[in-house]
Each structure stands twice: as C-alpha cells, then as structure tokens.
Amino acid sequence: MSPTTVLLVDDHAMFRAGIRALLESEGAVEVVGEASSGDSAVDMVRELKPDVVVMDLSMPGSNGLEATRRITALGLDTHVLVLTVHAEEEYLLPVVDAGASGYLTKTSADTDLLEAIRVVARGQVSLPPKATSLLLKRYRASESEDSVGLKALSDREREVLGLTAEGFSSREIGEKLFISPKTVDTYRGRIMEKLGLGHRSELVRFALRVGLLKDV
After folding, report:
1. What is the CATH number of domain 4-128?
2. Which long-range contacts (CB under 8 A, 24 or more apart) does 183-189 make?
3. Strand runs labelled E in 3-58
4. What tens digit of pLDDT does each residue of 118-156 get?
5. Distance between CA atoms of residues 133 and 46, nearest Å
6. Domain 134-209, classified CATH 3.40.50.2300, yes or no
7. What is the pTM (predicted TM-score) of this model?
C-alpha cells in the first residue's frame, strides 16, 4: 500500500524538521513538501495534492485558518489536520468552520500525530475529547438563537421565508399568497432585517435549520 502523503505547514523550520523525522521514521507516511506560510501552503497543495496537510495556525501573512478555508475550497481530496499550540477552547470551532478534518495540540504530537493523520487521510474526523462538549454548546446556542429568530416572524413572513428558500421568485410567491411582488420584497426585507441575514443563501440555511424546509 502506498504511503500517506503529507505537506507540513509551520513557520518554524526546526519544528518542521522534528515532525518530518517523527513521521518518516514510521515508514507509512511520506512528507512530500514543507511550507512556512499559508499562502505557500495553498500553492503547494495545488501542485502536490497531498493526502493530508498538517497545518499550524499562527504564521505570518495568510494564517492557518485562512489557508485551511482556501485549501478546502479547492475541492481536492486533501484533508487538513491542524497542529497548534492553541488550546481547543480558543480555536476548535473556527477550525471546524474553516473545513479542517482534525485538531491536535503540539504537546500531543509525539504520541497522537501519526494516528490523527491516518484518521483524516481516510476521510474521517480526528478531534480531541473536549470537542464533543464544545460543539454541543455551540449547537445549543445556535438552536436557541434560531428559535428566537423564528418566533420574531409573523405567519406571513414565515410563509414568504419558506417559499423564498424553496427558490420561488417574488412574482411566483405573490401569486401563491395573493399579494403583489413588491409586497413580497417588503416582507423579505423585514425577514432579513429581523434575522440579521444578508444573503438569500443564509435564508435557505436558516429555513433548513428551523424545519421550514425538509429537502431542497
């Protein structure tokens, strides 16, 4: 079986050298490149298409979070594993939102890094034990905010929201609800103002979260 290919991204050359030695001593991992900034990491991912990127967060120029977003947006079969000095409470949620498949602190690298690389290379997620409670807290907070937002909408506004999210135009919604397209636009503006949303895509996501849409 071919080795898992890895790109190391960290602005400290000595740290990269240590991680490379650790990984290559196992034989199942091939370090195909090293980058010292987020910008160079994105360029090297385009060129090398590694299985896994081991990504630091704090770097000059484009940081690890931004680089992770850009790499996941490329649509390649490359997975990002964040390896950082920062505690989970500080960066885990932004890292997950950026599209990373794993999070590991540098203090655990000597014992856990190789297994974390293997996990994310299989397309699975490798997160620390604290991740469950942190993600659950975020989910509950989001669920509570959505509930409050939905209650702030009138019945007619909920109808307009649901039909908008389903992809109907203002004219089509007006015909369904027996109101003018201009009135539909007025309702939509109120909805977005009440919910603090700026784009139609956000309306769709909100409608899905609160159960106004079952499948779109």
Report:
1. 3.40.50.2300
2. 184/160, 187/156, 187/157, 187/160, 188/160, 188/161, 188/164
3. 4-9, 29-35, 52-55
4. 999 998 888 877 766 656 665 555 555 656 677 888 999
5. 35
6. yes
7. 0.63
